[in-house]
Amino acid sequence: MDNIDIRHDEYLKRRDEFLKIRESSQSSFDKSVLNLSTGGLVLTITFLDKIGKPFDLPSYWAIGLTWIFLFLTIFFNVLSYFFAKKTWIKN
After folding, report:
1. Count of domains in the chain?
2. Is the backbone of residue 54 left (phi > 0), alpha (psi -120 to 50) or beta?
3. Per-residue pLDDT tens for 2-25?
4. Parent domain of 12
5. With 70 as the cut, is the pLDDT of residue 83 above it?
6. Nearest 10 degrees: CA dihedral of 70, 71, 74, 76?
């Protein structure tokens, strides 16, 4: 019986370690996606005068899509934190 208890304790320790790693990598991924979206927004604002002159409809569509994707990213990021917190409270 002692051997089984030791294996079970090892399993629980490893499981906790893996859960911490998963949580850390998920948080890091969310931050990376948000940073990339924000970087795209900053680039469009910085170079807006150079990108869109003379009036170029595809450029403005690209800028609009970038902004839409930024706001969608922020929305889904906040939503994921909300559901993660809700799930964490249940456990």
Report:
1. 1
2. beta
3. 566 668 888 888 888 888 887 777
4. 2-90
5. yes
6. -110
